[in-house]
Each structure stands twice: as C-alpha cells, then as structure tokens.
C-alpha cells in the first residue's frame, strides 16, 4: 500500500525492517527497547546517538539544546509562551493555516499575542511579503508554521525578526528534516515526530540555550524547558521506543546523504505531482499560490467535485490510501513525506491521468 496520510505517516521500509529485527531482543541487551530502563546504558546510548545524528543532520549549533518531549506539537503551543514570555509580554503571529491559528489562540492564555497577518480571508493559500509585515515593538517572538499540513502552504524563506531580543519560532511538524534549514535563524524549532521522523508520541524541540530558564512561575514542570534540558530529556520516563525509532530514521537520513539529498528527492516528487495537476487543463486544481506550495502536503480538488468520492474510492482500490482532504477543507490531499517513495507518487500521477481520461 502507498499511504498518503498526513500523520501518523509512512515510515521508511528499511527502518521498519531494522526495528522488526530488533523488536524482541535489542542487540546484546537480552531485552526489547520497550522493556529497558530509560536510565540504563543501552537506552542512554540510544538517546545520545539519536541526538548526535539529529544535530549532524540539521547542523544544530552548539548553543542550541535538542529536547525529546511528549504531548505533541500542540503542547508546545502553550509551552512556548510559558517559557519565553511573562503574562503581559506580547508575541507576533503570522497565520498561514489552521495550525498557526491554533498556536495563536493557545498562546493568548499565557501571553498577549498579536495577529500580524492572516491568510484566512484567502482560504490560506498564501504567505505574506515579509516587507509588508508590521512587527510589534517588544514582541518576544514571531511565530510561524513553516509548513501548514492541512492547507499545503510552506515558507520557502523566513522573515527576519524586527525586535531586538525577539526570536523567530517555527512549528516544523510537517516539514521537519525534509530539507536543509539554517537553525541559527530560529530561537525555537519544534515538531511532532509523526510525519517525517518517527511514530507519534515524540515531540522534538530545538531551542537556543539563552531562552531556557525564564519560565513563568506557574509553568507545569513537564512544560519547563529548563527541567528537560538539565535532565537531558530524562526528567521523567520519556517515550523510549519512539525515540529509538526516530534514531533509526535519523541514521537512515544520514545514510541517504543528509538533508541536501533528501530535499532533492522531495523536490522531484512534489514536482511531478504539481505538474500533473497544473497540466490537467483544470480537471485537477491546487489552490495554493505556486511559489509557496508545500513539498510535503499537496492539496487538490476536482473541477467536477461530485467525482471526488469516486476518485478516493478508486485510488484506495489501487492501494493508494488516505487521499481524502482534511475534513475542514475537503477535496484531496496527498502527503508525500520523506518516506514516500518516488514510485508512490508516480503511481498516483498515472492513476490521476487515467481517471481524467475516463471522467474528463
Ligand atoms: N502543527 C502542525 C503543522 C501539524 O501538522 C500538527 C498535526 O498534524 C500539529 C501541529 C499538532 O501536532 P500533534 O498532534 O503532535 O499535537
């Protein structure tokens, strides 16, 4: 089956096979990773290697901490203002889709967020010109969702933060490790693992160290970055098996030649899919402005919308599943994360052409 789900999503076959071979007994430990103490030497080695490999992949600078947390990216919508704002501090939000909107709304419980740009009136199909943005003096952070999973809108470069002391914060849940990123441009990068780098249950936070240690007094211990940083993500029992799986994915991405190579593959996959949509003479349409179309999540509709259910049904019969668009936007969406092979996208494109020939 080719699984086009938005997350949890397809994982590399070789990674799953390696995990399978180690499922019952991990190396010479005599037990499964699921059974190990998180403080034992085997798991210590697993989490340290996962961190080292992620640091290599993203060239994470020394002055940044890498945290393996729980609670999903959604928990970070609250953790970020709690950690880097006082209740009266402001933060700026650029909202280019539903996830950024959720982050903005959650932040309003813990700081004073300003919505400085929203794409809602244009159905979240655009990213603003950075020159037109009016950032607020004193805003502690400027928040973006680097890739909007539902709407298929992706930042191709990033705005500069106008405020001294303010930092750029990005939700990279759905394009994490899909391409090279200059981590030093960001104060915080966060991502749920379950799209590109592992199973659900692990949330990765990459944070500049000087931002740690300023949490509001009421911050729950589990949301305080200082606690997790001081304890190397082992303050309480972490999602051990998920971290192990992420580690296997990081190894695989390095073996592929790193994120530069991974990005080339992603550009190629997305390219053939968008070309098929744009070349269909309007039979298929992608509403997103061309320059900001996502390499990861490709939403599209049929001109004859009454055929959409049939499209999804026939595709599933051909073993291409989870192509239904998010319930809030309808249509179709093909999520083509790192682990989606080129063959999966080629098969989808061939099916789209055939479907058009029969129904066009
Ligand atoms: N941010 C983005 C961009 C997402 O795609 C998602 C989930 O799909 C989330 C946040 C929420 O993540 P989680 O379910 O890990 O809380």
From TrEMBL:
CDD domains according to UniProt: PSAT_like (cd00611)
Catalytic activity from the UniProt record: 4-(phosphooxy)-L-threonine + 2-oxoglutarate = (R)-3-hydroxy-2-oxo-4-phosphooxybutanoate + L-glutamate; O-phospho-L-serine + 2-oxoglutarate = 3-phosphooxypyruvate + L-glutamate
Enzyme class: transferase
Keywords, sorted A to Z: Amino-acid biosynthesis, Aminotransferase, Pyridoxal phosphate, Serine biosynthesis, Transferase
EC assignment: 2.6.1.52
Requisite cofactors: pyridoxal 5'-phosphate
MF terms in GO: O-phospho-L-serine:2-oxoglutarate aminotransferase activity; pyridoxal phosphate binding
KW Transmembrane helix (keyword) present: no
Protein family membership: Belongs to the class-V pyridoxal-phosphate-dependent aminotransferase family. SerC subfamily.
PANTHER family according to UniProt: PHOSPHOSERINE AMINOTRANSFERASE (PTHR43247)
HAMAP family: SerC_aminotrans_5 (MF_00160)
Protein name: Phosphoserine aminotransferase
Organism of provenance: Daucus carota subsp. sativus
The organism's taxonomic lineage, starting at the top: Eukaryota, Viridiplantae, Streptophyta, Embryophyta, Tracheophyta
